[in-house]
Design a protein that fits this description.
alpha+beta, globular, about 325 residues
Length: about 325
């Protein structure tokens, strides 16, 4: 289907579902997963997210799950864009897609927040920590998400799942990733029974910030969300303090005091001050996050090879799989 045919099909679909014509359709860059577009339908400014074309890993790019978690959380005080419509029919755009409201604000892919003042950086990182704790405080049973994932033994199951994805990939050998998997397997924490909604990719670049104030007004990109352990999300957020600005937007080696960016310990304390659970973040949790991100980069590398990567810089990002695996190993060895 040509671009003109696709647009015509989407226009007809929008007229049917929203009662207005499709206007602008602008791809949003920066992501490596589900293609995302700003669209206008009549006078409404909306966002459309869809599965990528081509072969995908089983269970990946589940836009139906994204839509479901947004529906559930939109009934709470967790800041998420309101979901408006889901389309399972691949005939319209070639893959399933959904439409949600467009939140007006700012997205900082540079976690150093160079555009903000010192005080604004401190406030935004505190808001980031508080927002995550509030998400984890939501009881999945209260909002119809009791079956959104399998509760219990989260890290054991996730280690097996992502290890299998790595084993089945066509990417050349990465010994550091194999060694990291072994180290994580030896250090698996016992299951403490704590279950929460986890975002799965909680970092500065997936947050919408108020247009003028240093506070989070939207959590974006729910592709990896499930039921799991809150320390998986916290470890993922803390990963930024162990990676550099060249490592997909980390903040390691920056002048935290001069910039007003909290240290990792201060960020974790801010989260804990709002958490309903008594938790202790260990090196395992951060190394586990690096392992997951390494395997995600393996997937990016495969999509780049197949030509269906969402991000234009996929080929440049793919080598980070080895880099993140190496950092994870260092954390496991040195604490």
């Amino acid at each position: 289907m040509s671009e003109a045919q696709t647009r015509a099909a989407l226009d007809a679909y929008m007229r049917l579902q929203f009662g207005a014509a499709l206007g602008a359709m602008e791809p949003i860059g920066g992501g490596q997963s589900n293609p995302t577009f700003f669209i206008t339908v009549g006078k409404q400014r909306l966002v459309l997210r869809k599965q990528p074309h081509g072969p995908i890993v089983k269970g990946a790019h589940a836009v139906d799950r994204e839509y479901r978690v947004l529906q559930a959380l939109s009934k709470t005080d967790i800041p998420v864009p309101a979901p408006l419509h889901y389309c399972a029919d691949p005939e319209i755009l070639g893959t399933p897609f959904y439409v949600m409201e467009r939140i007006e604000g700012r997205v900082f892919h540079d976690a150093a927040l160079s555009e903000l003042t010192r005080d604004e950086r401190a406030a935004l990182y505190h808001s980031m920590a508080e927002t995550l704790a509030k998400l984890h405080a939501v009881d999945p049973n209260d909002i119809g998400l009791s079956d959104f994932g399998r509760p219990g033994n989260y890290f054991e199951r996730q280690l097996a799942r992502w290890s299998k994805q790595w084993d089945e990939s066509s990417v050349p050998s990465i010994p550091a990733l194999d060694h990291l998997i072994e180290a994580l397997g030896r250090a698996l924490p016992s299951d403490d029974g704590i279950v929460s909604i986890v975002h799965g990719d909680y970092r500065m670049g997936n947050l919408m910030v108020h247009p003028t104030e240093p506070r989070v007004i939207g959590i974006l990109d729910w592709e990896l969300s499930t039921l799991g352990h809150p320390l998986a999300d916290l470890g993922f957020a803390a990963m930024a303090w162990h990676t550099t600005p060249n490592d997909y937007g980390g903040i390691a080696d920056l002048d935290f005091e001069g910039l007003g960016i909290p240290t990792k310990d201060v960020f974790i304390s801010a989260y804990m001050s709002h958490s309903k659970n008594k938790l202790h973040l260990k090196p395992f949790h951060i190394a586990f996050a690096l392992f997951r991100f390494a395997v995600i980069f393996v997937g990016v590398a495969e999509r780049a090879r197949l030509g269906n990567a969402a991000g234009k810089n996929a080929a440049e990002i793919a080598p980070l799989a080895q880099r993140f695996a190496e950092i994870g190993l260092l954390i496991m060895r040195n604490g």
